[in-house]
Design brief:
The chain is α/β, with parallel strands linked by helices. The protein is 45% helix and 17% strand. The strands form three sheets. A six-stranded parallel sheet has the order 8-7-9-10-6-11, sandwiched between helices. Strands 1-3-2 form a three-stranded antiparallel sheet, covered by helices on one side. Strands 4-5 form a two-stranded antiparallel ribbon. Strand 2 and strand 3 form a beta hairpin. Helix 10 crosses helix 11. The longest helix is centred in the last third of the chain and has 26 residues. It is globular, with a radius of gyration of 23 Å. The relative contact order is 0.11. About 2% of the residues have low confidence.
């Protein structure tokens, strides 16, 4: 017979149980569905009863949620789910510290990491000159990098922000497309603009772009330049060639920082062309000031189904690779 353990959590009187459990107990139901325990709420005390490991985890979860409330954060399904995931996987000793980190605040809205992987990514950007954020769609690799760029500009740590990505879909033959230069490049750079408008006011962005303080341009426009006192974000880097990657990295000047983001499973280069993002890791691994951050399906912060789709594709790709290797051995 499995022994049962009781773990009790006292909620300070200045926090309402509604803020912890949800107005209709929706947050409590999330916890109940995640752990094989019984949860009894009486006054400001929560008692968790169940198998020792499960009860300890659920008790620790409530402690972390109370810490979040102590730090002034409201609880919702997103951050409660994120805390549950961290507690269940023992990814971080203090999930509340992960969710309390702040990349940027704009109009009262904070941009924060939602997973341990995202927290490590932010810490790497703070500590290194060049950071590679590699992972699937929805892991926040570009969004968080841009938030850190905007923060650096606001703090006057850099004099300008440069956002760039390779216009692979047009083969960078932009001269053959109709319209003005900005009309030509807009479809390829629009995701960067969209993120930027989440972090700054439109009028402010327009003024900064007019003065050249913020520049959004295709990667081809970086050739031959030296970028001093800049925060540079290269997005969709899986679509660079090794030559383009070298060209970009050697543009870095004094007082600058670069973040390179991409998904090595989404390469759109012509067949037979190697991705600069796939090659660069073996070249730069031992260079001080360079960091590689791998984000995974666990760091996807879009709809739950996106996380499952990413994981399903990862499993499929691994199975296909194993089949190819088996075929070669025969």
């Amino acid at each position: 017979m499995t022994s049962s353990t009781q773990v009790k959590t006292s909620v300070p009187g200045h926090h309402s149980m509604v803020s912890l459990l949800g107005s209709r107990d929706e947050l409590l139901k999330l916890v109940e569905s995640a752990f094989a325990v019984d949860i009894l709420v009486r006054g400001n005390e929560i008692t968790v009863t169940g198998p020792d490991e499960e009860a300890q985890k659920a008790g620790r979860l409530f402690e972390e949620l109370v810490k979040l409330l102590d730090l002034g954060h409201g609880l919702d399904e997103a951050n409660v789910s994120a805390t549950i995931a961290m507690v269940q996987d023992a990814e971080h000793p203090e999930p509340s510290a992960v969710l309390s980190d702040e990349a940027l605040t704009h109009r009262g809205r904070s941009i924060r990491p939602k997973t341990v992987g995202q927290k490590r990514y932010l810490d790497a950007i703070r500590a290194h000159t060049v950071v590679f954020g590699i992972g699937p769609a929805g892991t926040g690799k570009t969004y968080l990098a841009m938030a850190m760029a905007v923060l650096a500009l606001k703090r006057r740590e850099v004099r300008r922000i440069i956002l760039t990505r390779p216009a692979v879909e047009a083969g960078e033959r932009l001269g053959f497309l109709p319209g003005t230069l900005y009309e030509k490049i807009d479809p390829y750079l629009r995701p960067l603009f969209d993120a930027l408008y989440d972090m700054m006011d439109a009028e402010q962005i327009a003024g900064l772009m007019e003065r050249g303080t913020i520049e959004v341009a295709p990667l081809a426009f970086m050739r031959g330049r030296t970028l001093n006192d800049s925060f540079i974000v290269l997005d969709e880097a899986q679509n660079t060639t090794p030559e383009q990657m070298k060209m970009f990295l050697t543009r870095l000047g004094f007082g600058s920082k670069a973040v390179v983001t991409g998904d090595v499973t989404q390469v759109d280069l012509p067949t037979g062309r190697h991705s600069g993002l796939q090659v660069v890791r073996s070249i730069l691994t031992d260079i001080e000031g360079v960091a590689f951050c791998e984000l995974s399906g666990r760091d996807v912060v879009r709809h739950r189904i996106v996380q499952e789709i990413v994981e399903a594709y990862r499993t499929f790709d691994e199975s296909r690779q194993e089949a190819l290797e088996d075929g070669r051995r025969r």
